[in-house]
Automatic annotation (TrEMBL):
<dbReference type="InterPro" id="IPR023214">
    <property type="entry name" value="HAD_sf"/>
</dbReference>
<dbReference type="InterPro" id="IPR041492">
    <property type="entry name" value="HAD_2"/>
</dbReference>
<feature type="active site" description="Nucleophile">
    <location>
        <position position="14"/>
    </location>
</feature>
<dbReference type="GO" id="GO:0006281">
    <property type="term" value="P:DNA repair"/>
</dbReference>
<feature type="binding site">
    <location>
        <position position="14"/>
    </location>
    <ligand>
        <name>Mg(2+)</name>
    </ligand>
</feature>
<dbReference type="GO" id="GO:0005829">
    <property type="term" value="C:cytosol"/>
</dbReference>
<comment type="pathway">
    <text>Organic acid metabolism; glycolate biosynthesis; glycolate from 2-phosphoglycolate: step 1/1.</text>
</comment>
<dbReference type="InterPro" id="IPR036412">
    <property type="entry name" value="HAD-like_sf"/>
</dbReference>
<dbReference type="GO" id="GO:0046295">
    <property type="term" value="P:glycolate biosynthetic process"/>
</dbReference>
<dbReference type="InterPro" id="IPR050155">
    <property type="entry name" value="HAD-like_hydrolase_sf"/>
</dbReference>
<feature type="binding site">
    <location>
        <position position="16"/>
    </location>
    <ligand>
        <name>Mg(2+)</name>
    </ligand>
</feature>
<comment type="function">
    <text>Specifically catalyzes the dephosphorylation of 2-phosphoglycolate. Is involved in the dissimilation of the intracellular 2-phosphoglycolate formed during the DNA repair of 3'-phosphoglycolate ends, a major class of DNA lesions induced by oxidative stress.</text>
</comment>
<dbReference type="GO" id="GO:0005975">
    <property type="term" value="P:carbohydrate metabolic process"/>
</dbReference>
<dbReference type="InterPro" id="IPR023198">
    <property type="entry name" value="PGP-like_dom2"/>
</dbReference>
<dbReference type="InterPro" id="IPR037512">
    <property type="entry name" value="PGPase_prok"/>
</dbReference>
<protein>
    <recommendedName>
        <fullName>Phosphoglycolate phosphatase</fullName>
        <ecNumber>3.1.3.18</ecNumber>
    </recommendedName>
</protein>
<feature type="binding site">
    <location>
        <position position="174"/>
    </location>
    <ligand>
        <name>Mg(2+)</name>
    </ligand>
</feature>
Length: 223
């Protein structure tokens, strides 16, 4: 029986906009926060354009949209955290093909990890609730290190922890942050078109591959 050679040893995944569509829950929490602060709600489609740089930036963008002063952040940020924790798993879903592809990659012997700008406290409950935590050797949230994506440090830290080479690592994400971080880390990168990239085509960031569906990974990750 022939052995299929793997082009990569490690595959890193972004979370929001790559594995899961978390905008409904984030929008609910943002709007509850805005109401508590005395502002009008915003459409979910608007919140979708704010996602991708972590919770602090999401709250800052919401407050700026509302015309609030920076001083309100100290009150608004904890409020957002409370509301998001309360609705974190309500109606949460993976994108089509994610569960099956992760299962195949894990069975084939690829090491898998999550590198996200999402606060760490939210990552494990999401992965466990969706039944996919066991596929990953580690997950890094946005507050695990001083730097977040697009800085390469989180990606390189994952490689260091798993003792695997960046040159043999593939990053899979949906935003320019993922592409910039991967390139700076010396990794190849897949850009997914269905996620959150501030309304801009992910192809503009020039990832190595662009896929419309998560299962497109099957074409470059055999086994």
């Amino acid at each position: 029986m022939s052995v299929v050679e793997h082009p990569f040893d490690l595959v890193l995944f972004d979370l929001d906009g790559t594995l899961i569509d978390s905008v409904p829950q984030l929008a609910l929490a943002v709007n509850q926060m805005l109401r508590e602060c005395g502002f009008d709600e915003v459409p979910e489609a608007v919140v979708r354009t704010w996602v991708g740089n972590g919770a602090d930036t999401l709250v800052q963008r919401a407050l700026a949209h509302a015309g609030a002063g920076e001083a309100l952040f100290a009150t608004a940020r904890p409020a957002f955290g409370r509301y998001y924790q309360a609705c974190l798993l309500e109606g949460l879903e993976m994108y089509e093909g994610v569960a099956a592809t992760l299962a195949r990659l894990a069975t084939a012997g690829y090491r898998l990890a999550v590198v996200t700008n999402k606060p760490t406290a939210f990552v494990q409950p999401i992965l466990e609730a969706l039944g996919i935590a066991g596929y990953f050797s580690l997950w890094l949230g946005g507050n695990c290190l001083p730097e977040k994506k697009p800085h390469p440090a989180p990606l390189l830290h994952a490689c260091h922890e798993l003792q695997l080479s960046p040159a043999r690592t593939l990053m899979v994400g949906d935003s320019e942050n993922d592409v910039l971080a991967a390139k700076a880390a010396g990794m190849r990168v897949v850009g997914l078109t269905y996620g959150y990239n501030y309304g801009r085509p992910i192809a503009d960031s020039q990832p190595d591959w662009v896929f419309e569906h998560f299962s497109g990974l099957d074409t470059i990750l055999p086994g």
